């Protein structure tokens, strides 16, 4: 019988020849990730279970990224808890401060390959599906069970496959594509479904751009966000990992597959307006003054985003009364941006450049907004209070829109 990627991957991971959407399976986990914010509860729950040793320390990845360096006594305590756990359990893949955002460094450092089942105690773990893995976020207590047993139960999801066609216009990017899709289907349009991104537009995208699509699958309720592996995927993986991998593709006549056609030929830059990610409008229809611009996050803090923004900001000055915060998604990206002179462009324009971390995205670290302030952000969520005060407002856009808007002091279309 014809199957989707998700069905094939979960069948492999559970040791079954055949699974269908709706089945409950116990899957072997290939990679488990937790970080400085969600990790302490996982460790506490793990200790309460009574298991003395994790199932496989080589398959656990622990980066510090949410509150680094520690910005409070509580976050410093969390770091101490996790460092102690890493030492006690001989966790091989521990990345202390300055490594970068978890969803960027896992594929970047070779922990993600096609065909794997990856879980992370963070909802945007679905990012790694861009490399053809079944990757999803789980709770901290579920992570404790993974630490203990190396397995987790899943309900095999149905699949919404977005067949995206058309050549993107100038200053239109993957972020605009995914915002537009979320605006069309709604925040609950793919609840507990695997979201596949396919078609000529996706084939023409870089792996980094595909990560943008997969990263935001959760914003329409998706269980994971998948892109079928191709030559670009293989090239990326071979350059970064020596792990074995297996390529899976969806059979287009699979019974659990729903195909949704998306034409982006006439798409213009998009913006998600407060306070929901599916409240999406063309940038040309939004005339809003801004107090802060945030360029970064696991969605759009990659080198291509920094290049897009620097191209627009070069020789320009950020508007009076507007501040801009630039946070590269990883140390590797930061170093390349330094080598290319991008950091200098940002600083000369008046932006504040920070070390790799999540920054204001989670609403608990550097760069928060106050009551009545408006943030334009390249991140993935604009819920009330997401980046600071619940009396503030957050808009979401591409890096190009963010840079152009920083110059003008209001949300504008890049020229």
From TrEMBL:
It catalyses: (2R,3S)-3-isopropylmalate = (2S)-2-isopropylmalate. Its EC number is 4.2.1.33. It is an enzyme of class 4 (lyase). It holds the Pfam family Aconitase. The keyword Protein biosynthesis does not apply. One of its GO terms (molecular function) is metal ion binding. NCBIfam families: hacA_fam (TIGR01343), HacA_Meth (NF040615), IPMI_arch (TIGR02086), PRK00402.1 (NF001614). Heterodimer of LeuC and LeuD. This is 3-isopropylmalate dehydratase large subunit. The lineage of its organism: Archaea, Methanobacteriati, Methanobacteriota, Methanomada group, Methanobacteria. The gene is dmdA_2.
């Amino acid at each position: 019988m014809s199957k989707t990627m998700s069905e094939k991957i979960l069948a492999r991971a559970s040791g079954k020849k055949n699974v269908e959407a709706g089945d409950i399976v116990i899957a072997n986990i290939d990679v488990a990730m937790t970080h400085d914010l969600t990790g302490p509860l996982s460790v506490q729950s793990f200790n309460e279970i009574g298991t003395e040793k994790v199932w496989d320390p080589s398959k656990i990845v622990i980066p510090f990224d949410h509150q680094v360096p520690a910005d409070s006594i509580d976050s410093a305590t969390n770091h101490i808890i996790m460092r102690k756990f890493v030492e006690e359990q001989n966790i091989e893949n521990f990345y202390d401060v300055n490594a970068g955002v978890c969803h960027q460094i896992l594929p970047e450092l070779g922990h993600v390959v096609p065909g794997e089942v990856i879980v992370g105690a963070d909802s945007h773990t679905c990012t790694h599906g861009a490399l053809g893995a079944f990757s999803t976020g789980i709770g901290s207590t579920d992570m404790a069970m993974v630490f203990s047993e190396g397995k987790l139960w899943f309900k095999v999801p149905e699949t919404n496959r977005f067949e995206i066609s058309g050549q993107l216009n100038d200053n239109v990017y993957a972020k605009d594509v995914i915002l537009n899709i979320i605006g069309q289907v709604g925040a609950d349009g793919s609840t507990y479904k695997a979201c596949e991104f396919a078609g000529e537009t996706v084939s023409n995208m870089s792996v980094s751009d595909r990560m943008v699509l997969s990263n935001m699958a959760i914003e329409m309720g998706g269980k994971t966000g998948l892109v079928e592996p191709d030559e670009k995927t293989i090239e990326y993986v071979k350059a970064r990992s020596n792990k074995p991998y297996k390529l899976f593709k969806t059979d287009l006549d699979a019974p659990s597959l729903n195909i949704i056609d998306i034409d982006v030929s006439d798409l213009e830059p998009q913006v998600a307006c407060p306070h929901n990610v599916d409240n999406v409008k063309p940038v040309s229809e939004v005339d809003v003054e801004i107090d802060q611009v945030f360029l970064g996050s696991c969605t759009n803090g990659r080198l291509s985003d920094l290049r897009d923004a620097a191209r627009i900001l070069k020789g320009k000055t950020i508007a009076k009364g507007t501040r801009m915060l630039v946070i590269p998604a990883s140390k590797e990206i930061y170093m390349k941006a330094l080598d290319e002179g991008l950091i200098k462009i940002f600083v000369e324009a008046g932006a504040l450049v920070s070390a790799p971390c999540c920054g204001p995205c989670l609403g608990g670290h550097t760069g928060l907004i106050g009551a009545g302030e408006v943030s334009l952000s390249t991140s993935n969520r604009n819920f009330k209070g997401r980046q600071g005060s619940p009396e503030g407002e957050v808009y979401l856009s591409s890096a190009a829109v963010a840079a152009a808007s920083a110059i003008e002091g209001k949300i504008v279309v890049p020229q």
